[in-house]
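call fold target=FZ domain-containing protein
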Amino acid sequence: MPGLTRGCVLSLLCVPWFVLRTHCFDIGLSTKCVSVPKEMGLCQDVGYSEMRLPNLMGHTTFGEVIPRSAEWEPLLRTGCHSQAATFLCSLFAPVCLATFIQPCRSMCVAVRDNCRHVLACHGQSWPDAFDCDRFPADEDTCLTSINAESAAYRKFFPKPTCQGCPATEEPGAHKRVLQTFCQNNFAVKVTLARRKGATGVSEYDVQGRVEMISPGSLFPFGTRTIIQQWLLINANCAHTMIQSSNRGAQYVLIGNVRDANIIVNKIYLWHKRDTQLTLAARKWKQHKCSKDA
């Protein structure tokens, strides 16, 4: 768990919950320690098993906590910030200690600055309930932020970003496909499928392993997670790609890594009988790109 700093804790936390209603929760009031429910997927790996109820969002029952916290699970799976789970769970499932421990303002700012771009990609803004000015400064008793991810980490595990959706194309002749490979940094073959998420909204998953046709600067051990995060961030792109059925379909995603960010530039639907795409993938290892490719 991130470190705690010493000082006083605010006695009253007023949290507007979206735009529907406002909860003002006196954290000096009586609360009880309860086990974090297994149905609360958001907070299963935060390092503790008991939480306080009512929580810092003003929820008094599991009937409120479980569905409201589930709304934030897709954001968490995008990997937008390494401390997003700690921040969210400190509000939805505060650890059972002698007093409430809020997130520090610095932690909120760090998570907000990294994750609000993902929310914006879905047409949402950082919610008022998570207004960072509401949380105590680092010199108070609160959960502090940790150092940002190192440049070396970002080099090995570049992050997907919100982007415009490239159209799913027919590949055409294998020479044209090889030229496309030359013009980009990576090409991977993936099987994608649609499923219904915890909140009833369709989500899109990478099934099985990812085939590295042209790995570029990507590494096999992290690429599946990166592609999964790209699907979650760019859910509108995924919806366009997989709108006909729930059955898995295979695609070749082609793109670049720029400033430690993944950008998908072209998508090919991989047909089993598409000999040209198969031929291009087989010839790629021996192919030499021309300087003007």
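return ok
The chain has a mean pLDDT of 83. The chain has nine helices and 13 strands.
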